[in-house]
Structure formats: structure tokens, C-alpha cells
Design brief:
binds S-adenosylmethionine, 11 helices, 7-stranded mixed sheet
């Protein structure tokens, strides 16, 4: 049996946005279905009207292009478990999915209720592993393309499914666990750290975010994002009327300009412009697209704050603003609600340089 439903994990409170996003992508390729997304549950499930259409949709979904989902898993029907033997139905469902997997992820929603489930899943894990082995299922096959997921949504309810290693988050529960650097001036630094990890792989980082390059940080105070650029060896102009961390200024890599980020113009083009100003998303989207359009920077990472009700619509609006400002093509844009983002998303925008980048 092919798993025909799509399970996505997200930040609690953003289930509706996941539902809108999945429905819009499904609609665009003619797949009909509906999304089950209980408010604040931290997950959503797309259920196609026809099973084979769900399989079709899964083929079209590119995890990296999804804005709100943190993880993407293809699952079958939800399982109702008995207290006496939770393991047998999970093993049976896994056997339906295959015989070898590249990892086993036993997970739950990122909510307080979900966290409470770990008191159940922790002692259950060795039993599930034993059951899988006994059924001839290898879940440690490094050559397999899929990972096996058991996603508990209650003590007696779970989904069993698979994710493609090449089309999903590599982080457990889709949560990037990053350590707060001791000398960074603000916790916001983790947002840019996660964005760099998410948007650039190691090779790209070495080429495109490397020592000797230049950057501008709009809305920099107290300096968490500037700190990240400095750590990567960039020379940075930090633009903000607020103060910049004294130690960061002592690094010799940072110049502070007390200026308005919407009026600041670089004397010469820079490699990177990053922006974490708290402003309306459409204004920030226009600003970032303008920097790229005018060639003031090569690439940009910026944050769009979404405190409004119609967040999905706002994201679509910003996408349209960027597209228009850049003449309808020749750029790549990724938008993602990162784990360290709250009511906001982070975007990566650049001129298209090679076919593999969009
Ligand atoms: C969320 S904080 C930035 C935190 C920073 N990214 C960090 O990691 O420490 C937003 C900053 O944007 C600045 N800001 C807001 N509007 C601005 C504008 N028009 N020009 C320059 N800075 C602005 C504020 O002064 C504030 O320091």
C-alpha cells in the first residue's frame, strides 16, 4: 500500500497556513482533497479524495519550497492503538511501507501535550525497534532513500509513514537544534544561523559566504545577525539608530551607521544584505527586491514579520511584490518559517546564477 496522505509538522498556531499552502499546491496540479488541521496541534494532514492522487501530489511537493511545514511525511491511515500492544499495529503498518529504511524517527507534535507523550515514547522505542527487527525490517540501512516515521498524536493514536531523505528536513521533528553562541549579542543570532544552515549547504557557504566578502545588516542592533556575518569572515556595515554591541565593534570587521534602513544606500555593491527590521512585510519585501534589482547586493536574507491574521495571503502578496520588482524572473527565492522564527518567516533572495538554484 502506498501512503497517500501528507503529514506536515509546523509551529503550533500555523496549521491553517499549512492547510492553505498544501491546498494551493494541490489545486495547482489538479489534486482534490482536504486538510485536517486542528488549531494549535502543530501538524496538519492533507487527505486526497483519491489515494493515487495523494501519491502524485507527494511527487510534486518540494520540501525546500514549502514555507510553513517543518517536516514532510507520507503516511497511511491513522492507527488506533490498544494499551495492551501498541507495537504490533505499528510494525504491521511499517511492513506495508517497505523492508529497509534509512533511520527510524519516533516523534510527536511540538506542543506541551506532544512533549508529554515522550514519557510514553521513550520506553516504547526499544520495543518498536525490537518488533521491527523481528519482522525483518532494517531501519538502519544507510543506502535506503527513505526514513521511517512513527508520529504519535495521542497515547493511543499515531501515524506511520516515510519521508524522502532528499525531500525532507534532516532534523528530528524538523527542529534545528542550534547552540546559542556565548558571545553573540542577542538570541536573534540563532535565526540567521538557522537561515544560513537552511538556505546554503557547506559548499555554497564556502563559495558565497566566505572571508573577505562584504555585508550590510539593516536593523542591526544589538548585533546578533552582524555577529553571524562577522563569524563567517565578512566585513559588515551595521545600520541602526540603536547601539551595536561594543565587543562586536572591537572586532574591526564592523562599521556602525546610525541611519534609516529604508534610506541607506551602499557606497559600493556588497555581497550580502541582511535585514531583521520590524516593519510591514510588504515594505521589507519591496526593499530587499530593490537591493537585488539595483545590484546593491548579490544575495539577501531577510525576515518578514507576520503578526496579522491573513498570514498566507500576506506571504503570497510579498512573493508577488518581489516577482514584479525583479521583472518576473531571473531570481531565486526561498521562504521558510524557521524553528527560531516566531510570528515571522525568513527569506533568501538572489539573482539566478545557475539552473540548480531557484
Ligand atoms: C528585531 S531587532 C534586530 C535584532 C538584530 N537582528 C539582532 O540579531 O540583534 C529590529 C531592529 O530594527 C531596527 N529598525 C527598525 N526600523 C528601522 C529602520 N527604519 N532603520 C534602521 N533600523 C530600524 C530597530 O532599531 C531594532 O534594533
Amino acid at each position: 500500500m502506498k501512503p497517500s496522505r501528507l503529514l506536515v509538522y509546523c509551529r503550533a498556531g500555523f496549521e491553517r497556513e499549512c492547510a492553505q499552502e498544501l491546498t494551493s499546491i494541490a489545486g495547482a496540479i489538479g489534486v482534490e482533497g482536504f486538510v485536517k488541521a486542528r488549531p494549535d496541534s502543530a501538524f496538519a494532514v492533507f487527505q486526497p479524495h483519491q489515494d493515487d492522487m495523494g501519491v502524485e501530489l507527494a511527487k510534486h511537493l518540494e520540501f525546500a519550497r514549502l514555507v510553513f511545514p517543518r517536516q514532510l511525511v507520507r503516511v497511511g491511515d491513522p492507527l488506533t492503538l490498544q494499551e495492551a500492544d501498541r507495537v504490533a499495529p505499528i510494525v504491521a503498518a511499517a511492513r506495508d511501507l517497505g523492508r529497509s529504511f534509512n533511520g527510524l524517527a519516533i516523534e510527536m507534535p511540538d506542543t506541551n501535550d506532544g512533549k508529554a507523550l515522550s514519557t510514553l515514547t521513550r520506553p516504547l522505542t526499544p520495543h518498536i525497534e525490537k518488533g521491527l527487527r523481528k519482522a525483518g525490517i532494517d531501519f538502519e540501512d544507510a543506502s535506503a532513500a527513505e526514513r521511517l516515521h512513527v508520529f504519535f498524536v495521542g497515547s493511543l493514536a499515531c501515524y506511520v509513514g516515510v519521508s524522502d531523505l532528499a525531500n525532507s528536513s534532516r532534523w528530528p521533528m524538523g527542529i534545528a537544534r542550534l547552540r546559542m553562541p556565548r558571545d553573540a549579542p542577542s538570541r536573534s543570532t540563532l535565526k540567521l544561523a538557522e537561515a544560513i544552515d537552511e538556505f546554503l549547504d557547506e559548499k555554497e557557504r564556502a563559495k558565497r559566504l566566505a572571508p573577505g566578502m562584504t555585508g550590510i545588516d539593516l536593523g542591526a542592533s544589538p548585533g546578533g545577525w552582524t555577529w553571524q556575518l562577522v563569524k563567517h569572515g565578512l566585513m559588515v556595515i551595521a545600520v541602526d539608530n540603536g547601539a551595536i554591541d561594543a565587543k562586536l565593534l572591537e572586532s574591526g570587521q564592523v562599521k556602525h551607521r546610525r541611519d534609516d534602513g529604508f534610506h541607506f544606500k551602499p557606497e559600493e555593491p556588497v555581497d550580502w544584505m541582511v535585514c531583521d527590521m520590524v516593519e510591514s512585510p510588504s515594505r521589507i519585501a519591496r526593499l530587499a527586491a530593490g537591493w537585488i534589482a539595483q545590484g546593491w547586493c548579490r544575495e539577501s536574507i531577510f525576515n518578514l514579520k507576520l503578526p496579522m491574521k491573513k498570514r498566507w495571503e500576506e506571504v503570497e502578496r510579498c512573493r508577488a511584490i518581489i516577482d514584479e520588482a525583479l521583472g518576473g524572473g531571473g531570481y531565486f527565492l526561498r521562504m521558510k518559517q524557521l524553528y527560531h522564527d516566531r510570528e515571522e518567516i525568513t527569506c533568501h533572495l538572489a539573482r539566478q546564477r545557475k539552473a540548480a538554484l531557484r
